[in-house]
Amino acid sequence: MSKPFKRFRSHRVDEPTREKYRETFLKVDDFIWPVFLVDGKDISREISSIPGVYHYSSDTLVHSLNDLVCNGLKSILLFSVPEEKKIEQAYSENGIIQKSIPIIKKEFPDLEIITDVCICSFTEDGHCHVGDNDKTCEILADIALSHARAGANIVAPSDMMDGRVYYIKKKLIENNYDDTLILSYAAKYASRFYGPFREAANCTPANGDRRTYQMDYCNSTEAMEEIAADISEGADQIMIKPAMCYLDIVAKAKIKFEEPVVAYNVSGEYLMIKESISNSINPPNIILEVLTSIKRAGADRIVTYFVPDIIKGFLW
Ligand code: PBG
Hints:
The chain has 316 residues and is an alpha/beta fold. Helices cover 40% and strands 16% of the residues. The protein has an eight-stranded parallel barrel, surrounded by seven helices. Helix 6 packs parallel to helix 8 (221-233).
């Protein structure tokens, strides 16, 4: 007679059996690779605050993308790191992002290009606004339009000003860029995990911090309100950021909203894992465990600096 309990272990006896019962699978299509672009030629400089991540000029980026796109990479997220801090450069047609998109698209016409829309690398004080909320939104809309004109598929405002999705959508539609999508950083928390990025993007706030615009990490209902507001203003996809300490928010957003949910596995999270890997016996598994947890929580796609590690480490 069979015992009155379920034999779960029979599902785990060997790898083929475990695979049969597996619920979450990572695919190469799940990943978006964040890239830091600088002006110039032949530049490929490792960023000291994020080991394994580079500042690229557009020519060397194309070179690095070759291998990744051949192995299935479908999407990148572009940040620019200008030498000079001038806001006009953020929406100039001669800006780094605006000049680089056609170069990348020429080589990889099917690669999805998402652009970060923010001014923190262009302001003297490193903040994501110019003081006034609505004035900042107007600038953000100009930046988004300039990225759309250059050929961006998706623009991703990461500033956390109120109403910026409304301003951006309106501007895009008025200029007949109805097909340029908006991925809004709808729930972006004021997080210590951004530290390494700020060094890489040269956008550490000169005074104070970002808690007057990014979300308080103690809040979760407010995240749903932020997301609902962005969707009502025209966001096509929504971002939760950071990812690892915010899987509850990812899970709730996935259940509550129809729009695709993207989670950003940010620089500090990357660094934490990278550093632990040097002491670890089985490094790739740690990366896969973390990324799988983000997908299992409900993320449709994941922005992660681990893209080269996972693409080079695995055959899809
Ligand atoms: C800037 C921006 C930041 C990140 C993405 N866009 C930094 C910040 O808000 O301070 C962080 C990304 C990361 O840490 O990997 N608006």
